[in-house]
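To make this tangible, this section ends with a sequence with its C-alpha cells:
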Amino acid sequence: MTATAASVGRESGTNLPENRSIEDRWSVSRIFKHVVLILAAASIAIPTIWVIFASFKQKSEFYRNPWALPKGLFLQNYVDAFVDAHMGQYFINSILVTAMAMILSMAIALPAAYVLARFEFPGRTLLNLCIQGGLFINVNYIVVPIFLMLVGWDKALVAIFPGGFFINNIFVLAVVYAATSLPFCIYLLEDYFAAIPKDYEEAAEIDGASHFTVMVKIFFPMAAPAISTALLFNFLSFWNDYIISLTLMTGKQKTLQVGLLNLMTAQKAAANYGRLYAGMVIVMVPVLIFYAVIQKKLLESNTQGGIK
C-alpha cells in the first residue's frame, strides 16, 4: 500500500519541483531577453524621437530647457536647412546616386549569382574565391587608390574632357558604390539561388522555358527575401556613406552626409541647433521610409508556390 502510494506520488508529484524549476529558468530567461530588447529599442527610439522634436524648436528654446517639448512646429528650420544650407540639392544628389548604384548593383549581381549557383564552367571555383575574398576588403582602405586611379584617367583624357570626367561625377560615384557592393550581393544571392530545388528548373524546361525565363520568372521572385536584404544593406551603405563621397566629390556637388557635416560645423558656430536637427531628420526619413516599404519582404520565406 505504502509502496504503491509512493510510486504514484513519484509519478504524479515528485517531479513537480523539478519541472517548476525548469519553467522558472525559462521564464527568467524570457524576462531577461525582453528587458534587453526593450532597453536596446529604447536606446534607439528615444534619441530619434528627441531629434525629431528638437528639429521643431526655435533657437531660444534650446537655451531654456533643451529637453522640453517644442512649443510649436517651427517649420522654418526645415526651410533654412533645405534652401540656405543647400540640403535640398544634397538630398537630390544622394537620391540619384543611391538609386543608380542600387540598380547597377542588382543588374550585375542577380545574373552573376544565378550563373554561379546553377551552372558549372571552367574557372567557377576561382571566381567564387575572388568574390569571397572581396568580402574582407573594407572599401575605406582602398578609397585613396580608387581616387588616384580616377585622377590618372582624368589626366589621360584631359584633351577630351578638359574639366575632368571621373572626379565630381555622380554617375562615377554610383559605379564605385555598385562595384564595392558586388562581393556581398553576389555571395548572398548565390547562396540563396543554390538552395532552390532543381525541380523548379526541370518543370520550367519541360514547358519550353529558356534559362533567361527561368531566371527572371522563377528564381528572382522566389529570391525576393534575399533580394530585399541585399537592397536594404546596399541602401544603408550608399545612403550613409561619407568617406567615398567626400573623396570623390571635391567640388560643389555633395551628397547628403557630406552636406550634413558642413551644416553641423556651420550651425554649431552659429548656435542654431534647430536647423542642425532638421538636417538630421532629413537624413533619417528616407531610411525609415525605405525600411517600412521593404520590411515585409524581409520576413517572407522561400516557401512561396510549390512543386506540382
